[in-house]
Amino acid sequence: MRFVDLAKITVNAGDGGRGCSAFAQPPYTRFPYPDGGDGGDGGDVIVRADPNVATLLDFQFRHEFKAGRGGHGGSNTRTGKRGEDRLVLVPVGTVIRETADGPTLSDLTGSGEEVIVARGGRGGYGNATRAASAKQLEKTQHRAQAAEATAGEAGEQRALILELKLIADAGIVGFPNAGKSSLLRRLSTARPKVGAYPFTTRYPVLGVVEAPGRGSFVACDIPGLIEGAHEGKGLGIQFLRHIERTRVLVHLVDLAGVDGRDPVEAYHGLNEELAAYHESLASKPQVIAANKMDLPAARSELARFSRAVGGRVLPVSCATGEGIPALIEAVWEALQQHG
């Protein structure tokens, strides 16, 4: 299934039903009296977060969602039926806006959370409602004019932007071929594609990580970060939004420099990309993991790298599993500190 995290839709709430203009004249009465009922209200368009929906893919094929129109009023003061609501299901973590850079209308972060994005029009008044009283009508020969029914109001119409931001506790970040997908496979039962070429992973992948004796947390492999990602280079700008909700970042560095990138420069370069996208990303707590410790080049680089970054560095090997338990423990502790 293709991963889609941005979509544009149009929502149309139902129009209100028309009020009824009708008269009744019981025996022994001088004038008929109005007995037309009100029109029914139009249905609302409701967006609900559903844990069974994974992406916004469906909205690539269907863009318009319309609620039902209210029923018309009837004689004998019968009120029209309310229009049927239209329910739109989206993934948990969906943000709703009217423009790409506009204010957030709603942020559906919990399963079952919902919001009315377009309200149905109010039903029109029947002439029974419009009439002040039967006695007033008896004083006028213009009964119809004194108690005219009204049309229903139009339902709201809006163009909306849906933006999915995945909800994960820890985000795995690093330049291409640092081993992010391999790390997620080691940490969890998730099986992202792994390959020795850039952009093997083309969409975010979630995995549940078990911390023995502690509990579990959700980790996310964020693909496509390269120099200039915040400017749209590579795939990064499409997926940097998914880091925003994470509490901790696992900063993975290829310590062996297999692709010719200096590990220290890679570490600082990625942090600069995060800060350029949004300052909040640069301030997130990080667990630094030095990968590919099964290679001699990585082992000889560890001391220099640790001095350069000035923080705790966890040596790991996604190929052999070396250091993985210690990394899980460190991420768990960081999550507890920044819960």
Structural class: alpha/beta
CATH superfamily of the largest domain: P-loop containing nucleotide triphosphate hydrolases
With strands numbered from the N-terminus, the spatial order across the biggest sheet is 12-13-11-14-15-16
**What is the approximate shape?**
rod-shaped
Q: How helix-rich are the residues, as a percent range?
A: 10-25%
**CATH fold category name of the largest domain:** Rossmann fold
Number of strands: 16
Helices and strands in order:
Layout: E1 6-12, E2 23-24, E3 33-34, E4 45-49, E5 64-66, E6 86-90, E7 94-97, E8 104-108, E9 114-118, H1 127-130, H2 134-138, H3 143-146, E10 157-164, E11 170-173, H4 180-187, E12 205-211, E13 215-221, H5 236-239, E14 248-254, H6 263-277, H7 279-282, E15 286-291, H8 296-309, E16 313-315, H9 324-337
Parallel strand pairs: 1-5, 4-6, 11-13, 11-14, 14-15, 15-16
Antiparallel strand pairs: 1-10, 2-3, 4-9, 7-8, 7-10, 12-13
